[in-house]
Write a structure and sequence with these properties.
60% helix, 0% strand
């Protein structure tokens, strides 16, 4: 009886075995993501939320110029009151801020609403004081003319111009900050620009 040959094992191609880790060789850590520009402010927020009084003081120092820049073109002569009330509202709400990296957008929303509220309450439209953002200090005469034109506009129109022209927000972000529909932002901005243009060309 013929013997049946045993099946020959198929030769598998040699595959390199994974290199065993060398316990004596230190593993190079992968670099983490670069911290964003908002991270220093976010650290201050976390520290302030934890009750660090020095962090609160540092946050006030950090935010006051930004809040003032938003309040001046909206609340005009009452901008100091608007800044104070905005900062009070910000620090009262700080424990409820869930995302510290969203600090500036959150502060902007509170500040614009407070500035509009103060301007409405004041019921007066007085010429601007200093407004450093437009135009520059070398254009003092032009600055006075711009300030005079803008001081004759309503606080609502000044608010939408501030968010769109100075802060560079799109309609959706301006809508969120002012708590009004996008369509209202668009129509209000259109009227504000027309009012400015007509007053400027007189």
């Amino acid at each position: 009886m013929r013997a049946v040959d045993a099946p020959t094992r198929r030769q598998e191609p040699d595959t390199p075995r994974p290199e065993e880790p060398d316990p004596g060789r230190a593993r190079t850590p992968r670099p983490g993501p670069e911290p964003g520009p908002w991270e220093p402010a976010a650290r201050l927020v976390r520290a302030a939320q934890a009750g660090d009084a020095l962090a609160v003081d540092d946050l006030i120092t950090l935010l006051t110029p930004y809040v003032g820049r938003l309040c001046r073109p909206i609340a005009l002569a009452d901008s100091a009151d608007a800044v104070q009330e905005s900062l009070i509202a910000v620090f009262q709400g700080l424990p409820r801020l869930k995302d510290p990296t969203a600090l500036y957008g959150w502060v902007r929303t509170i500040t614009v609403r407070e500035a509009v509220r103060v301007a409405r309450r004041a019921r007066r439209e007085t010429p601007w004081g200093e407004f450093d953002d437009v135009p520059g200090p070398l254009d003092a005469e032009l600055a006075c003319e711009v300030h005079d034109v803008l001081s004759r506009m309503s606080s609502e129109h000044r608010a939408v111009l501030t968010l769109r022209e100075l802060e560079g927000l799109d309609e959706r972000a301006a809508s969120d900050a002012l708590n009004i529909p996008c369509g209202t932002v668009k129509s209000r901005l259109h009227r504000a620009r027309n009012s400015f243009r007509k007053a400027w060309t007189r």
